Amino acid sequence: MRLIKGATFHTYLYSLRTRITHRGYAASRTGFNDYNQAREEFKSNVPKSYNFSIDCFDVIARKKPNSTALWLLEDAGSDRKYSYSQLSELSKKLANGLESCGLKRGDRVLAILPRIVEWWILNLACIRAGVVLCPGTTLLTQKDIALRLEKSAATAVIVHQDLIDVIEKVTSEKRGLTKICVTNETCRDGWLNLNFLMNKGSPNHKHADTLSSELMHIYFTSGTTGTPKMTPQTHASYGLGHYGTGRYWLDLTDQDVMWCNADTGWAKIAYSGTFGPWSQGSTVFVHNTKKFDPELTLKVLSDYPITTFCTAPTGYRFIVQQNLEKYKMNALSHAVSAAEPLNPEVMDIFESGTGVPIREGYGQTETGLACGTFKCIETKQGSMGKASPGFDMCIVDNDGVRQEPYAEGNLAISISPRPIALFSGYLDDEERNDRVFVGDYYLTGDRAYQDEDEYFWFVGRADDVILSAGYRIGPFEVESALQEHPAVLESAVVSSPDSLRGEVVKAFVVLNEQAMYDNEEELKMELQDHVKQTTAPYKYPRLIEFVKDLPKTVSGKTRRVELREREWKNIQS
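Structure (tokenized):
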């Protein structure tokens, strides 16, 4: 494999994107226009050394210093733009500031910050210094934080001032931990002020010459089962691997404004709110709001020139409950969704109301964007799309044998050769690594099938598939059928123990605010009949329970495992 120095490598990618963008596309904004060509020509020429801040961000800052890198909208309504050159300089100053308080290359830092500019500056600064960033969501509890500090062996914690009291309780007996807060006020004893460290730092920084294989981030994956796993990503796997996310799935250029409303602790913000857009020279739009509001989201999409939008399926389900015709989203040309499958009927309503189709992508914290409905391929509604350039994704059985079209099996990614964005394995968990790396494949833990056109179709998490009277039933098909009923906002389908059938389908249903019904039992029967008419009758939910909300991970995935465990415990007790 030919090795290319980092900055030279990114300059090559950047110039290649520019050439492809303008080849026959003088009148079009779209840059990615030939899926088959991209797959055929993709080469994994990973450089020996790579550092995103130096080899990508600074390259763009020099080429287009005044281009907007970050556009931050505060909840109160004020907004501010930061150019590539500004963030480049601020991150150099902060890198010096972090090193001045003892942090060094390879040290691990737990960072829990809201959607503020300091989070993006910190990200760039840690990469420059070779400091390993461990992002955490602002929704973490005291117990969650203690677990992450212990497992990651972090030498520093960086939080917003609102979390100082929580950190003090967690770290009361922990010695040698550097504590840094983001505040405009004076820090309490024992704490350092991040803004002070940044302001006093020199704008000249000697960066760490990080290896491509060197650890850059550690994510604690939310997962739908079990405790969080430490998922490491390197300077190549995320810093370079998400070039494909921005180039192929998001289809971004340096003229685009990308808004991903994910929390900073979720890997999705790396996909669509940091590395993906910045690798293409795009503007990252951020709305610093604490709670998702569908009406406010639509207003922001109307008031600002956002060209590409990404939110979780739950967000879209709430959005389509609004009167979309009220909002004029003239700049919006691309909408994407990830985390779990999005119901086709939601996609229909959104496209009908906005004129913009929603394109799904499939990826995990572990993988990068492995599969998607790219702009330049035909969309098959309900499908996850095709494998991304650089990925050989397939369906295998439990013995690692590739399956024929339409045969359900384990959704797998070939590691021969290994995709750039794929992680190397969970930290300190060889038992789990032995389960997910089988032969020449990484097993995603999802069940799916592939059709004759190489499109993938999601069935469910391996643990979520229901076995009832000899039938295999994927929860997504039942949830999609329920979603088509006007009374349903969202649902989660799990197994319930049954003495005759082994398991039966049970649906936990959240009704929308406009749902009108006089008799709960009659509505349940109506929903059951609706599912029978919409999909194969054997899949209908024999049990239905109405709930106010569904348990979710921080990344927006429905925790069916929690509902399933509760259901089985209640029935068997």
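The chain has a mean pLDDT of 90. DSSP finds 17 helices and 26 strands in the chain.
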